[in-house]
Prior knowledge:
Blueprint: E1 15-16, E2 23-24, E3 28-30, E4 36-38, H1 56-64, H2 68-76, H3 83-105, H4 113-148, H5 156-168, H6 176-181, H7 187-210, H8 215-237
Antiparallel strand pairs: 1-2, 3-4
Helix pairs in contact: 1-2, 2-7, 3-4, 3-5, 4-8, 5-7, 7-8
Amino acid sequence: GRGVLPRAMAALGAYRCIECNGEATELYRDYQRGVLRISICKSCQKPVDKYIEYDPVIILINAVLCKAQAYRHILFNTKINIHGKLCVFCLLCEAYLRWLQLQDSSQNTDPDDLIRYAKEWDFYRMFGIASLEQTSFFIGIFITLWWMTPEMLKRKSDFILLLKALLLSTYGKLLLIPAVIWEHDYTPLCLAFIKVFVLISNSQAIRVTLNLNRKLPWFAIFFGLILENGVVCLFQKMGWDV
């Protein structure tokens, strides 16, 4: 069915065609009396953004399927501003998973408060480690992209948009919690699939944001993983459980 078309989007501004990534001044035109006409892209002659009529659930399904059109709609043609909160929540999920695995490897039923506080500190430590690992992963991506395509990241706004895209594309980490709650023999395999899905989402976010081919985003992600694993090795040499 038709979704509710946001009135704010009729105002003139910088939008993108979800098909060809061309710029557009408006997504639709309101002719009053409930008559709306979706704008047509001057470059590809297709609707600028068909998703403005779609239900949010359908948009989410298309995003899960990593469709470039859905990513362009979310990143360029909406006013979503949850990337910071989403990042924190995803890091909490990852920290909880690591903390749970740490507790499983060192079972202790002692009710003493010191033991309880130590376990609580372990959770905060895991959150800090997960944050540093993700930061190093993003830094690796930014360094690679800035080195390979400096013309794409000239302005501060370009960095901010790419960071927002990367943060939003980590939503797959939310699946960590149900994977742990419904624990079964295939949980390690599920966690591996979640990791791959997040990396695919990151790649699509980079590709859509900077309008690149498929190879360069994966090269940047590969370098980001190397830097992230370097941080993990550093923590392990310090004797920390990660």
